[in-house]
Amino acid sequence: MRIARFEHEGATRLGVVLDERVADITTDHGDDTAALIAGWPQEEMAPIIAAAPRHHLSEVRLLAPIVPRRDVIAVGRNYRDHAREFSDSGFDASEKQMVPDHPVIFSKSAGSMIGYGEAIDLSNDPTGTTDYEGEMAVVIGKRARGVAEDEALEHVFGWTIVNDVTARELQKRHVQWYVGKSPDTYCPIGPWIVTRDELPEIGQSWLRTSVNGEKRQEAPISDLIFGVERLIATITEVMTLWPGDVIATGTGQGVGIGFDPPRYLADGDVVEVSIDGIGTLMNPVVERGTP
Ligand code: MG
Fold it and tell me: What is the pTM of this model?
């Protein structure tokens, strides 16, 4: 099932995407995807969808499929080839070793989220060094604390796509990555959440990123150094994860700073991140001037 948030006639709604249409399943939860996930009515979904009004996707505006109750938890240097290119670029001021022994975990402001088709605004990066990072993201379905790796997937509601847009010079300058990862509009997410039962073998999917139609990144999700199970076990050893929390699992080789000279995003660019079985997250890049 594909769960979306969207705007229709000025109101924010929740929906299930069926081919080119979206069934409006907005209930007492309003547009709160996390609340829907927490009380997920699995057995009732078929009659709810059958009774729901439908709109063509062209009649609605997709929004970030979830507004999490906390910042996005993100993972750095989690594909070997990307770890190498990032190391070679010299932009990681925190680096101790190229391929880490433990997951490199950081956060990205929930306030930086935007949905499909919304613009990444370069005006939010005073250093002019904005880069893309296509990533598979996990959406938590059930409260998780002290979860073992072999039980971790039971706590996953589904998968989505995140573009972990990064202001590289800020990432380097401030050592801790929060500032460089969190400018407004720098967390495109979507286009929707695909439930785990619809895509149980996410490792078999490939992640691809293009800029203006030119392929920049291509990697199988199975190349993750620390997989979904290990990430959930590591995080929940110290903190509780809640329904709707988002974990961005890391990017593959081919980011802008992997090139010499670096190929940063520019006004007028279009970035597309695709994952087999999920879809494509497309965002234009603009530079509006004063943020
Ligand atoms: Mg990243």
Answer: 0.97
| CATH (residue range 2-63) | 2.30.30.370
CA of 255 to the centre of ligand 1 (A): 10
First-last CA distance in the chain: 37
CATH code given to domain 72-286: 3.90.850.10
- Site of tokens 């709707």: 244
**Which residues, at least 6 apart from 2, have a Cβ–Cβ distance to it below 8 Å?**
16, 17, 18, 192, 193, 194, 195, 198, 279
How far is the centre of ligand 1, averaged over its atoms, from the C-alpha of 176 (Å)?
Answer: 14
Residues paired with 139 in a beta bridge: 158, 246
In the chain, CATH 3.90.850.10 sits at 72-286
Q: pLDDT of 116-153, one tens digit each?
A: 999 999 999 999 999 999 999 999 999 999 999 999 99
- How many Å lie between the centroid of ligand 1 and the Cα of residue 135? 7
Q: How far is ligand 1, taken at its centre, from the CA of residue 108, in Å?
A: 9
CA of 43 to the centre of ligand 1 (A): 36
- Ranges for all domains in the chain classified under CATH 2.30.30.370: 2-63
> What are the tens digits of pLDDT across the range 246-270?
999 999 999 999 999 999 999 999 9
Q: Which of 151, 110, 145 is nearest to 242 (CA)?
A: 145
Task: Give me ligand 1 centre to Cα 178, in Å.
Answer: 12
Ligand 1 centroid to residue 67 C-alpha, Å: 19
**Residue 220 alpha carbon to ligand 1 centre in Å:** 16
145 CA → ligand 1 middle, Å: 24
What are 176-227's pLDDT values in tens digits?
999 999 999 999 999 999 999 999 999 999 999 999 999 999 999 999 999 9
